[in-house]
Amino acid sequence: MATSFGALCTDFYVNQKLAVKMDLPSDRETILHMFDRIRADNKSMSRFRRYSDELSLESSRRDGSYRWAALRRNSVRSGHVNPDSLEQAYDLHRLMLRTTPYHLSLSPLDIQYQELLFGFDLECKGNQHEIVYEALIANSPLASLLDCPGAKPLDIQPMIGLALEDRLQAFFEVKTSTSPSQVRTGRYRTEPISVFLTIRRVGAIEKVEDLLEHFELMRNKAEELAAHRVVPDLLAPISRAITSSP
After folding, report:
1. What percent of the chain has a predicted confidence (pLDDT) above 70?
2. For 1-11, how does the pLDDT look when each residue is reduced to its tens digit (9 = 90+)?
3. For 72-126, how does the pLDDT look when each residue is reduced to its tens digit (9 = 90+)?
4. Residue 115 lies in domain
5. Whole-Å CA distances, 170 to 16, 158, 237
6. Is the pLDDT of residue 239 over 90?
7. Cβ–Cβ < 8 Å for 83, 91
8. Which of 30-49 are b and which e, b meaning 16 or more Cβ less than 10 Å from the residue's Cβ?
9. Residues 50/114, Cβ–Cβ less than 8 Å
10. How many domains does the chain have?
11. Residues near 37 by beta carbon (within 8 Å), at least 6 away in sequence
């Protein structure tokens, strides 16, 4: 993959979500026309799938880089895993914002929030809670909470949310997948530690065309925070802790 962010992790992905207040249309004609429009600009997205709570249009996952778009009852989502560039990922999200409001008859009154997520997966084998503890907490006052004989980190998944300008919010989150049974037995699988940066815009909009303008503000903020906060303060320490873990 060509993105500088992707070079720092096992998998890098850019997801978008548009959440609405009222239920979205569910009739066949509307949904199929919407997905046909997406496929017209993305020929590789030809797998139409139904899950328990969503309908999805996906490309093949065989080469490790793939795109998807999904419709749920109260949200429209899209994502690009391991894109060659950020602009390549943004192209799909911009297409979604240009077309889906009209296919789904969205009104500015209906928009609940708009969201852009940068995801970074770092594969490792071990107690991921312990790795995150060593990377982010060990030298802080919070470390004293684990000062108990024989204690092992069981659930350490820090999350911090910030209110920014222009009705934007930013959320930094670290998600682990080590289970309590793995901690108890010491038998670990190779699984990812996920680091998420989510930029969310809340509040009313004047017209659906504003969604594209807001997207540009969100992606600029996401790139800024990823480069100056996520990479040095989350990814780098966790990567070092993974490398030094037994």
Report:
1. 99
2. 446 898 999 99
3. 999 999 999 999 999 999 999 999 999 999 999 999 999 999 999 999 999 999 9
4. 6-244
5. 14, 14, 20
6. yes
7. no
8. ebeebbebbbeebeebeeee
9. no
10. 1
11. 99, 103
Identity at 125, one-letter amino acid code: K
Residue 77, domain member (yes or no): yes
Question: Is 83 contained in some domain?
Answer: yes
Decide if 136 is inside a domain: yes
Question: Which pair of tokens denotes residue 152?
Answer: 């092992």
- Map tokens 């950020």 to a residue: 86
CA distance 46 to 10: 26
Q: What are 237's two structure tokens?
A: 């320490």
pTM flag (> 0.85): yes
Is residue 166 in a domain? yes
pLDDT of residue 152: 81
pLDDT of res. 131: 95
Can you tell me whether residue 4 is helix, strand or coil?
coil
Quick one: pLDDT band at residue 166, thresholds 50, 70, 90? confident
Report helix, strand or coil for 63. coil
DSSP-derived secondary structure for 117-155: EEEEEEEEES-HHHHHIIIIITTSGGGGGG-STT-----
14 within 8 A of 92, measured Cβ to Cβ: no
Predicted pLDDT at 149: 82
> Across the chain, where does the E strand assignment appear?
11-20, 47-50, 55-58, 66-72, 75-81, 111-125, 159-163, 168-175, 190-202
Structure tokens, 221: 């903020």
Residue 119: burial class (beta carbons within 10 Å; 0-12, 13-18, 19+): buried
The whole-number pLDDT of residue 3 equals 64
